[in-house]
Amino acid sequence: MSGFNQPVSGNDLARFSGPGTFMRLPSASKLNGLDVAVLGIPMDIGTSWRSGTRFGPKQIRAESAMIRPYNMATGAAPFDCLQVADIGDLAINTFSLSDSIRIISESYDAILSKNTIPVAMGGDHSITLPILRAIARKYGPVALVHVDAHADVNDEMFGEKETHGTVFRRAWEEGLIQPDKTYQIGLRGTGYGADDFTEAQGWGFQQFQAHELWGRDLSDLGAEIRRDIGNRPTYITYDIDSLDPAYAPGTGTPEIGGLTTPQALQLIRALKGVNIVGCDLVEVSPPYDPSGNTGLTGANLIYEMLCVLPGVTSR
Ligand code: MN
Ligand code: MN
């Protein structure tokens, strides 16, 4: 396994010390040679209710110090197969959402030009629109696995077209995603109109509401989605509020009756074999969860996504 970056072992350096990077991986200022770049996008100016996701990357990195390199359930060994590093945070403009969106998109063009898979720690969900713009410039319209309590398909919010609640309508309008290969999983809660979710079904989106998934093993759903996607380039966007607030209270717009942590693991693990070209984990808002459990869960879900990236094999 020589030559691949490894997380610093908790047996070599106490877990509460050492680098503050994701999983205590090496930090990298250059993209050359990286298969995967983990990065933070510390932003919360696209959110509509509680703020605080600007602190998401910092807490996810802190909680990730507990994670060890081998996946005991699946055997996946991501750091034996891929060169992974933490490239730090994007220098967003915290006084301008539109400028931040430009910065994210341009930064992603640079990452994708090196054929590096970007894995982002948000940030509110508005980061995903500029990410998808860059992804589509490279790969064309992608398949999208979108796990969320919300469909995020509003037309506008306070007249603004680019917010955390409008991302996937814009992505559809702009042709960034393949509508019939877009899967929205975990939708629930109250709406402004009875067709808040279902309008997007008319565009082709495949929607799986949380109440249909209660008590179910999501391995089967993940496998169905994997087969339906085939070998298409696929982006995964994981909103932590897809989980029930019992598991992930530290988020901006919590909704009761959500998915469980085991269901999140079942879903991600079943996506092994999908041609994943990037992923993100968004909406972790540390000020609303002083226990750190939301950040811990987010960090582990990012690890689980690393474990299903193309090229990762099991020991
Ligand atoms: Mn969302
Ligand atoms: Mn949401």
Distance between the termini: 12 Å
User: How would you sum up the major sheet?
Assistant: 8 strands, parallel
How many distinct helices? 10
CATH class (first level) name:
Alpha Beta
Q: CATH H level: which superfamily?
A: Ureohydrolase domain
Structural class: alpha/beta
Average pLDDT across residues? 97
Biggest sheet: strands side by side, in what order? 2-1-3-8-7-4-5-6
- The amount of helix comes to 25-40%
Q: Which stretches of 5+ consecutive residues score pLDDT under 50?
A: none
CATH topology (fold) name: Arginase, Chain A
Small molecules bound: manganese (II) ion
Reported CATH architecture:
3-Layer(aba) Sandwich
Radius of gyration over alpha carbons?
18 Å
SSE layout and pairings?
Blueprint: E1 36-41, H1 56-63, H2 78-81, E2 84-89, H3 97-113, E3 117-122, H4 128-139, E4 142-147, H5 167-173, E5 177-187, H6 198-203, E6 206-209, H7 210-213, H8 219-229, E7 234-239, H9 261-269, E8 276-282, H10 293-307
Parallel strand pairs: 1-2, 1-3, 3-8, 4-5, 4-7, 5-6, 7-8
Helix pairs in contact: 1-10, 3-4, 4-5, 8-9, 9-10
Bound molecules: manganese (II) ion (2 copies).
Q: What does it look like?
A:
With 315 residues, the protein is α/β, with parallel strands linked by helices. It has one domain: Arginase, Chain A (3-Layer(aba) Sandwich), CATH 3.40.800.10. Helix content is 30%, strand content 17%. An eight-stranded parallel sheet has the order 2-1-3-8-7-4-5-6, with helices on both faces. α1 crosses α10. The model has no long low-confidence stretch (mean pLDDT 97). The structure holds manganese (II) ion (MN) (2 copies). One manganese (II) ion binds next to loops.
